[in-house]
Amino acid sequence: xxxxxxxxxxxxxxxxxxxLSCAASGRTFSNYALGWFRQAPGKxxxxxxAISSSGHTDYAESVAGRFTISKNNARKMGYLQMNxxxxxxxxxxxxxxxxxxxxxxxxxxxxxxxxxxxVTVSS
Length: 123
Description:
With about 120 residues, the protein is mainly β. The protein has no helices and eleven strands. The protein has strands spanning about 5, 10-15, 20-25, 35-40, 45-50, 55-60, 65-70, 75-80, 90-100, 110-115, 115-120. Strands 2, 4, 5, 6, 9, 10 and 11 form a seven-stranded mixed β-sheet that branches. The chain has a four-stranded antiparallel β-sheet with strand order 1-3-8-7, with no helix packed on it. The chain is globular and about 40 Å long. It starts with a strand and ends with a strand. About 35% of the residues are buried. The mean pLDDT is about 95.
């Protein structure tokens, strides 16, 4: 079993930056794919970014070029660097892990989830 804990959320102005962190516990973290999802009020949870065990990355069209996903296997940490933030980025952000080396874009493909961290971007 894997436990994930997100941190780093907060309130920022449009154009600002935040870095979210995801601390993981459990074995074989280096073999997991890691994903970030977000959910705004009244909306379904949506894919943001993912990284495979080998380091291949994928991003939603809405965040490509602004967000960067990474992971540090030795520290069992995942990260989401968010730059040029927009009000539409406001949501609860969730870290998720998939017991597979490959990237998946659907929430149903992930096995473990963090509790979420709030990101609010003001105008």
